Amino acid sequence: MEINENLQAERNLKAIEFEKAGEIEKAIALYEENISEGFKGNHPYDRLATIYKNLIDLDNEIRVLEKAIIVYEEITLEDRLEGLPKLFRFKNRLEKALHTKTQLAKQKKSKLK
C-alpha cells in the first residue's frame, strides 16, 4: 500500500481545525487514520495521546504511545536526527500512562474490598 504523505498532512491540518472547533470525534478519526498508516511524524501521536488522556481513556492512550514508539524506533534506525529525542519522550509518556493505569487499578481494587 502506497502512503500519500500529502494526504496525511492534509488530514493533520483538518484534524487541527476540528479540534479548534470542538469536534474532537472528527479529529480523532483523522488522527487514527494517519497512525494506522504509520505516519512518520509526531503530531497525530502527540495529539491522540493527549486527547485520550484528557478523556481518561488510558487503554487508547497507551495503544497510541506504543504505536508511536514503534514508528520512532524505525525513524531512529533511518538516522533521522529528530527520532531519538521523540522516541525517548514517547517512552516516558508511555511509562507514565502505564503507571497511572496501575494506580487506578489498585484504587479500584481497594474500593471493592
From TrEMBL:
This is Tetratricopeptide repeat protein.
